[in-house]
Amino acid sequence: MKKKNKLSMVGTGVFTILGLVYIAPILIVLMNSFKKKVYINKEPFTLPTEKTWNSIENYLTAIDKYELLSAVGWTVFITVASVLVILICTSMCAWYITRVKSGFTKVLYLLCVFSMVVPFQMVMFTLSLVADRTGLNTPWGIVIIYLGFGAGLAVFMFCGFVKSIPLEIEEAAMIDGCTPLRTFFSVVLPIMKPTYISVGILETMWIWNDFLLPYLVLDLNKYKTISIAIQYMKGSYGRVDMGAIMAALILAVIPVIIFYLSCQKHIIKGVAAGAVKG
Amino acid sequence: MEKAIRRYMPIFVLPTFCAFILGFIVPFIMGIWLSFCEFTTVTDAKFVGISNYVEAFKDTIFRHSFWYTALFAVVSLVVINVIAFALALALTQKMRGTNIFRTIFFMPNLIGGIVLGYIWQLIFNGILAKYSTALGLNEWYGFWGLVILVSWQQIGYMMIIYIAGLQSIPGDVMEAAQIDGASGIQRLFRVTIPMMMPSITICMFLSITNGFKLFDQNLSLTAGEPSKMSEMMALNIFNTFYGRTGWEGVGQAKAVIFFVIVVAIGMIQLRATRSKEVQQ
Questions:
Q1: Where are the alpha helices (DSSP H) in B94-245?
Q2: What is residue B261's predicted lDDT score, i.e. its pLDDT?
Q3: Which of B110, B133, B237, B252 to mutate to test the interface with A (most CBs of A within 10 A)?
Q4: What's the rounded Cα separation, in Å, for the pair A97 and A114?
Q5: Does the global pTM surpass 0.90?
Q6: Less packed terminus of chain B by CB within 10 Å, N or C?
Q7: pLDDT of res. A130
């Protein structure tokens, strides 16, 4: 028993070091976000000294000059709105196509599964044309695009769960006089709560970090997401302000870490559940 | 009951259905059609047969990007899965702090590709500067840079799937093997890995298709430097579309080729590992 204990202590020690190495890249960026920009490329691995210290100037530049806060705002808006719409619409759709057996529902299900394997590059050009033509190139319109393009995975996962709900529960509700709508919202929806969380988390991770779809769809003069804003800082200005980029990276990572630490358990469960179904 | 639900079709299905048509079906069909056309916008599309495909196959940079991507996908598949599996094995042992370690290893997965690319660009360029060189000067620096970046991002994700798989192995199977006198290594190769085949299938499928579809990280880490030599397929297609006018048709043809390759590789991979799965 004693020997085992020792082994586990060694294990904990080794993994503590590994863990520190693992988060080192983020810490290095954090450290550099407080340095003056000329020193970042020259000596990225040293702690800020009195000479290189720039306090929060980089953050102010990122916010003032590159409008990072509005990018964060739009990203939050697009993510929250799209995920909510996806959850409600696709779960209703999945319930319908599992409960009603017809040629139409079968084809729709197969198309959803098919859409999961199609890489975005296949439709990117035509999708941005469609979005332009139909006026969906705003943060409100992009919600519909996300519903359409993200429907595949969500419908697939919800269908997998609906199949495991015993039919009797719903039948009882309907016999008691519930309309299908009421049956869905007061009987089916509560049972599916774990699946809502899993799907919600997978879609949140995707939409929050997505770069190419909003880059091609949104009207970039008016709206930018965080990823787009950071890409712009690097791309379209003559001189790259490394300080502001470091600050922007940190500002982009902070919401993610807060989200992660506050619902870590659900995230890990959601990922495991999503993979088993996939 | 079915009849009653049927009447509610417009409420339940129509929103998703319409968005799906608009966001997927129409762009997909248009995409296939346009790959046989010459165009700059859709209204001036002119049918040109397979000449876009001929052009795409003649493009040496596109062919280079295919081999570069394929090699990347295979290397990253091996690195990610071996390390993730080892971590999953270690972190399911009795040890203090396994939950915290799982949390840490998973975290990079939530960070977006663009952000990841710039984080690592700083680090790689900082290291390479000591040898007076830089990431954008050699395609293989970019290659290994991307392998490290993607491993850092995805190991945690695959590890979570492997841990879920390990935890679902019934304890009595392990015990039986132990009583029969199987050594640790024997148990790993004869019991654990065969029982884990469903998880391994999923992880390999995810990592190889992710490897092929990689875009954001490629764009932000190297952007194809030096002179398009570290450009992967997805980025090559993007640059064909938006880099020069008049090449949209070729870009769309490349996109169709890319789609076929991704689907084919996914299918082959699934078939290859599914056949090794055992009934539990």
A1: 98-106, 113-129, 139-167, 171-179, 184-187, 193-195, 197-213, 216-221, 233-243
A2: 92
A3: B110
A4: 16
A5: no
A6: C
A7: 87
Burial profile B232-253: b = 16 or more Cβ within 10 angstroms, e = fewer: bbbbbbbbbbeeeeebbbbbbb
Q: Would you call B93 and A44 a contact, using CB atoms and an 8 Å cutoff?
A: no
- Are the beta carbons of B278 and B197 closer than 8 angstroms? yes
Please choose, from the candidates B222, B227, B63, the residue with its C-alpha nearest in 3D space to the C-alpha of residue B147: B222
Q: What ipTM was predicted for this assembly?
A: 0.85
Question: Which chain B residues touch A249 with a CB distance below 8 Å?
Answer: 115, 118-119
Task: Determine the average pLDDT of the residues in A255-259.
Answer: 87
Which of the residue ranges A48-62, B138-152, B184-198 would you say has the lowest mean pLDDT? Answer: A48-62
Q: For an interface test with B, which of A15, A133, A249 has the most B Cβ atoms less than 10 Å from its Cβ?
A: A15
Least-confidence region, from A37-51, B21-35, B81-95, B110-124:
A37-51
User: 3-class DSSP state for residue B250?
Assistant: helix
B115–A230: do the CB atoms touch at under 8 Å?
Answer: yes
Q: How far apart are CA A213 and CA A206, in angstroms?
A: 11
The pLDDT tens digits for A83-115 are: 999 999 999 999 999 988 888 999 999 998 888
The DSSP code for B47 is E
Is A121 in Cβ contact with B111 (below 8 Å)?
no
Among A123, A147, A277, which would you mutate to test the B interface (most chain B Cβ atoms within 10 Å of its Cβ)? Answer: A123
CB contact under 8 A, B113 and A211: yes
CA B32, chain centre distance (Å) = 23
Distance from CA of A157 to the nearest CA of B (A): 15
